[in-house]
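Hi support team,

I've been running sequence recovery on a batch of backbones for a student project. Most finish fine, but this one hangs at about 90% for roughly twenty minutes before it completes. I'm not sure whether the input is malformed or the queue is just slow. I've pasted the structure tokens below so you can try to reproduce it. Let me know if you need the job ID as well.

Thanks,
M.K.
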């Protein structure tokens, strides 16, 4: 693209963004990531604070706290642990310490509230997991991102169909967690309704087979999420930023496309949504969710479909680390901010480098996804492009040599092809 005909990335991404009454100082956002190493009982640790402060110092305008749970149920069924807890009053003090530290470094901070993991929940201690319909997540071996190999793929445990009582109990628990986030000083909250998690399972006909008022039409499929947004809005008042995180496309045969998801979003935003954080695909189409190319979402027309359906509600674009590409999308009106995850693991100073025209100094994420392999195996997340990542606080534990070897092997196509062949042969051997 002819750079002289477009606004410079530094100017566009460096300009302030209004979310409800909050002014965010620029348009580079740290996306939610479960890399924060909270304490075993679910409180922000010194490493949590140091990791987030480092990104605030690097210039991002807004930080999302991910790997966090809104309810005791989510804490018990989470596939990743430990998580940062918002489900009890006793956590507010520690959360406030985290918020105050990030504010000191000049960034705004939002809490990602995970209501329940739904189809991705892990049933433990005899507890049930539930979703819109009893449908497991089927992850084919070929659907994983680059350099992530899962021999034979994976099928999650079957959830129960959520009862209306389940839906209403969860709604009340999310409202209470939003109140706690606000009491801790968070500048806003996001209700996680993406991937294959609880609310996500209602939004697409691929996972929602219900015949009651929560299934069928787009309006019915939007109902559970719309109701929780409305209830949170009533709790926190009109001026407090409340948003949702949604998948924008199933990327599956017979799945829902961007126009379908945008139609569902259209039924939700009027309940009081101040922003929509867009994510691609879900666990059944992981390669789309964590892509290796900048700008996939724009190429698929997904932010554009949301813009037509929901007007000027701020939209956060994902996976577009190429600064001018993100800036052009914002200038064109397709999105309002760029939200980055892996790129900000690899280079915490990305934002400041863009703002000061030092793009040549950016340490680029290579999309080889060793961070993701670590997350999937509950090994401390580190980034091989940024040795500081994971020990921003000097007392944080690094992974062991054996764990590093395992992560390397899990990203090796040849070794994993052997493991795949062994997995395929195993059931035959039993017969
Ligand atoms: C290590 C890791 C942890 C993640 N944890 C979360 C999380 O807690 N919540 C969430 O919504 N997304 C999570 N994600 C997804 C990212 O926020 C993001 O959507 C995805 O990585 C694609 O964006 P990117 O191309 O900028 O990395 C995680 C991703 C990675 C790599
Ligand atoms: S480990 Fe680092 S460089 Fe590799 S994909 Fe993750 S963030 Fe990017």
């Amino acid at each position: 693209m002819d750079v002289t005909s477009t606004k410079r990335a530094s100017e566009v991404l460096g300009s302030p963004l209004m979310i409800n009454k909050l002014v965010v100082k620029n348009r580079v956002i740290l996306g939610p990531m479960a890399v924060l190493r909270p304490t075993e009982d679910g409180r922000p640790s010194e490493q949590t604070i140091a990791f987030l402060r480092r990104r605030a110092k690097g210039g991002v305008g807004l930080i999302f706290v991910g790997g966090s749970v809104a309810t005791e149920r989510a804490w018990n069924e989470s596939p990743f642990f430990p998580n940062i807890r918002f489900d009890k009053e006793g956590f507010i003090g520690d959360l406030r310490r985290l918020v105050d530290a990030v504010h000191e470094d000049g960034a705004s901070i939002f809490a990602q509230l995970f209501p329940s993991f739904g189809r991705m929940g892990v049933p433990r201690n005899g507890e049930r997991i539930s979703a819109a319909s009893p449908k497991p997540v089927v992850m084919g071996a070929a659907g994983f991102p680059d350099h992530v190999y899962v021999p034979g793929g994976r099928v999650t445990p079957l959830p129960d169909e959520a009862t209306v009582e389940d839906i209403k109990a969860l709604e009340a628990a999310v409202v209470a967690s939003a109140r706690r986030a606000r009491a801790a000083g968070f500048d806003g909250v996001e209700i996680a309704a993406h991937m294959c998690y609880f609310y996500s399972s209602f939004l697409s006909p691929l996972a929602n087979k219900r015949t009651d008022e929560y299934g069928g039409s787009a309006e019915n499929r939007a109902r559970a999420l719309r109701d929780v947004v409305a209830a949170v809005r009533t709790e926190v008042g009109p001026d407090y930023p409340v948003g949702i995180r949604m998948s924008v496309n199933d990327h599956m045969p017979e799945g829902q496309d961007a126009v379908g998801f945008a139609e569902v979003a259209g039924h939700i935003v009027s309940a009081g949504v101040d922003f929509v954080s867009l994510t691609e695909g879900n666990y059944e189409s992981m390669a789309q969710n964590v892509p290796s190319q900048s700008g996939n979402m724009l190429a698929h027309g997904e932010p554009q479909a949301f813009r037509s359906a929901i007007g000027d509600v701020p939209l956060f674009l994902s996976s577009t680390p190429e600064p001018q590409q993100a800036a052009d999308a914002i200038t064109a009106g397709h999105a309002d901010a760029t939200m980055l995850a892996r790129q900000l693991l690899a280079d915490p100073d990305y934002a400041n480098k863009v703002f000061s025209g030092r793009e040549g100094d950016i340490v680029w994420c290579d999309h080889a996804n060793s961070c993701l392999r670590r997350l999937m195996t509950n090994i401390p997340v580190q980034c091989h492009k940024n040795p500081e990542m994971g020990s921003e606080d000097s007392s944080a534990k690094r992974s062991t040599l054996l764990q590093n070897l395992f992560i390397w092997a899990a990203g090796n196509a040849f070794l994993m092809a052997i493991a795949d062949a062994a997995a395929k042969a195993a059931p035959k051997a039993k017969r």
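--
Follow-up from support: It reproduced on our side and the slowdown came from queue contention, not your input. The mean pLDDT is 93. No action needed from you.
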